[in-house]
Design goal:
- The chain is mostly beta strands and about 325 residues long.
């Protein structure tokens, strides 16, 4: 597909500085630009590349002030990163969607499929399952009995949804992820063995949730494990039973949330954050990578670091002292 810079600028409401008739047929990182490519500059650590890039056009912020001549046509916008994301979404949505049901798929008679769905090879759709309009179930997906999928939801190869789980509209579940596996519930016995506690609840993913690859969201012991709308989970994340994750919270890879923890809205967790069970995390909380949270965080918009985690600035000062301990001793 080819577009002129003028057409692209109209889509992202940008101002053109250069030739509006410049043709664009691909996208590229600014340091790897070539003729016909569109790049963007939002991180000023990459500014040096805008003066040498081979890209035909570059999206920049409106307040960007170049320190040398730029040969590429510029498209100035309020937020270059956001504008580029808009374009990539437009490109992704312009790709033709697969439709139809592969003959090797197994769909139980009591299952109900919406309009324009895609069911790939070796997919299993269980009894009394409801699949919404325009859903895509890629090869080897499994949907357990009595589960429900909303409209425009995609499950990539090998994703599994256990029985009685509810997936909202416009959700994405990537390869290898498991929604609704048993929570980690075992009662210690007098003979030092453990007796399994049946996990009879389910998992609810609200609308616009994205689950990365190889993520596990455990079903509740009773009730529901709930991932609220707009949540984004990176790869390799564990969400324990009866956890609730608030709207628009994001988590980086290898984060682990223990059972019955309640996480607020608009939280951000770096990679390998661990949160103990049965605690409350306030709205807007940020936890730096590798933080270990073992108690409630009740003040909104708190940033924590360390293990055990505490207020970020104090943690930084503490580490300065810690690094000097050999000399101090």
């Amino acid at each position: 597909m080819k577009f002129t810079v003028k057409e692209i600028a109209q889509l992202i409401r940008g101002d053109i500085e250069g030739d509006p008739a410049t043709m664009i047929d691909s996208v590229a990182r600014i340091e790897e630009g070539h003729k016909g490519a569109l790049s963007f500059l939002s991180n000023m650590n990459y500014e040096k590349y805008i003066y040498t890039t081979g890209s035909s056009a570059v999206i920049v912020d409106k307040d960007f002030n170049p320190s040398a001549p730029v040969s590429a046509t510029l498209i100035r916008v309020d937020n270059s990163y956001e504008a580029f994301a808009t374009l990539l979404n437009f490109y992704e949505q312009s790709k033709p969607r697969k439709k139809g049901i592969h003959p090797s798929a197994v769909i139980e008679d009591s299952a109900r499929l919406g309009k324009d769905v895609y069911v790939g090879p070796m997919v299993y759709v269980g009894e009394n399952v409801t699949v919404g309009d325009r859903c895509s179930l890629h090869p080897h997906v499994r949907i357990g009995d009595k589960s429900r999928l909303g409209d425009d939801t995609q499950l990539y190869p090998g994703a599994t949804v256990y029985h009685e789980c509810i997936i909202g509209n416009n959700c994405t579940i990537h390869s290898g992820s498991v929604i609704g596996s048993d929570g980690f519930g075992f009662a210690p016995q007098q003979d030092e063995n453990y007796k399994k506690i049946p996990q009879i609840g389910n998992v609810i993913l609200e609308d616009n949730v994205e689950i990365g690859a190889n993520v596990v969201v455990d079903r509740a012991t009773m009730g529901s494990t709930i991932i609220r709308k707009g949540v984004k989970l990176d790869n390799l994340i564990q969400i324990g039973h009866n956890v609730e994750v608030g709207e628009n919270t994001v988590m980086a890879g290898q984060t682990g949330i223990a059972g019955s923890t309640k996480i607020g809205r608009n939280c951000m967790f770096g990679g390998q954050v661990g949160i103990t069970g049965h605690v409350k995390i306030a709205d807007g909380t940020k936890a730096a990578a590798k933080s270990g949270v073992n108690s409630n965080i009740l003040k909104e918009n708190t940033t924590v670091y360390g293990s055990p985690a505490f207020e970020y600035r104090k943690a930084q000062l503490s580490w300065i002292i810690f690094r000097r301990l050999p000399e101090l001793k």
